[in-house]
Every structure is written in C-alpha cells, then in structure tokens.
Amino acid sequence: MLWVHDLDAEGRPLVLAGRIVETEAYGGSDDPASHAHRGRTPRNGAMFERAGALYVYRSYGIHWCANVAAGPAGEGTAVLFRAIEPLVGIDAQRERRPKARRDSDLGSGPGKLCAALGLDGADDGRRLDAAPPGELTRVVRVTAGEEPERLVRGPRVGISKAVDRPWRFAIAGNPHVSSPRRTLG
DNA sequence: TTTCCGATGTACT
DNA sequence: GTACATCGGAAAA
Fold first, then answer.
1. How far is A26 from A42, CA to CA, in rounded Å?
2. Which residues of chain A (49-88) touch nucleic strand B at CB < 7 A?
3. Got the DSSP string for A72-128?
C-alpha cells in the first residue's frame, strides 16, 4: 500500500492510499534505461539517497512520476510506482483526477497515480520511512500488504534501451494495471 | 477498439 | 536542436 497523509483545505485529516499493483525496477550506472545511468544531476539526486527516499520527477514536461530509492546511498537504484488500485479516499482521488471515468482510470499509470494521490515535486526527497502521521506534517509511506496470488513480469514500458530486461512487475489480472498489458506474463 | 499526435521540463548532443 | 520511465483527445476502423 502507498499512503499519503495530509490535511484538506479546511485543515481536516486527509488520507489517500492504494494497493501497489505494478512497479518497474531501475538500476544505477549499469542500467542505460535508468535516469541514474549518467550519474547524479539536480533532478535525480533522490535516487542516490539510501533506500526509502522518494524520487519524484516531471515526465514529458507535464506529468509527475514517483519512485522509491532502493539501494545503498550513492548507488542510484530505484523502483518506479507504475499503478495503484485506489482503496482509501477514492472520492478525494477522483477530485484530483476529474478525467477518470472508472476507478481503474484513477491510478493505472505512473502519471495518473501521482495525480490521484497528489504527489508532485514538493515530495521529491521525502522519506517513506518517516515517523507515523502527525497532526501537521505531510507523510508519504509504504506498508506491506498481503502476498499477491501471482506476479507477472515483462519488459519495461516506454523505454528504448535495455529493453531485454524484464523488470516490470504486476499482479496478474488486476484491472488497475497500466496499459499495455499484453507484454506481461 | 486501436492508432496518431500534441503538450513541454530536464538532460543531453 | 533531440530524446524522454506519459497522458488524453481525436480520428480511424
């Protein structure tokens, strides 16, 4: 589960969360498809933090995409959140994604899930292992869920290098997994 | 349903 | 200038 705890416009607690149903792994300097491949820049610095830091970047100049750093400090490995199944605060997530017609339009893509959960550049570098939600502090965290029945894997989406590495993972048959689904499993 | 394409920040040639 | 870890609207089928 991926959680965002915050306050709404009237100062009341707001909780948005969803089950992580799809991810992609990105390596460090040895992975030509990774933003970390060419070393640290102002944008990708959070990738090089020790495991647990959020890396949020702007994609195609428009959307936000969120990763979590996955290695020791300086390595640059990360996991991209590619899709969530919205479970908590669905109405509030719909308000943030008015284009969504079905629940499966809310988080079925890396840009979509950031919009639904309100993740943006202000969250870049935030730690996912921070203290439990407090009164005034925005908190983003990940918690373990039940073991999925079946995981499928396939090539990563939207890349042109290292396309042979099957580092995209998803829960088989879950309707909230992003398109394209064909190359999975 | 599938295919095509425009929007546009950041990094690189 | 070009490429890019994307999305959604329009057109085609």
1. 18
2. 58-62
3. STTS--EEEEEEEEEEESHHHHHHH-TT--SGGGTSSSHHHHHHHHT--GGGTT-BT
Query: Burial of A73 by CB count in 10 Å (0-12 exposed, 13-18 middle, 19+ buried)?
Result: exposed
The structure's pTM equals 0.96
Greatest alpha-carbon span in chain A? 49
- Structure tokens, A24: 């992609």
Which nucleotides of strand B are protein-proximal, with an atom < 7 A from a CB? Answer: 7-12
Q: Which tens digit of pLDDT belongs to each residue from A133-176?
A: 766 789 999 999 878 789 999 999 999 999 999 999 999 999 99
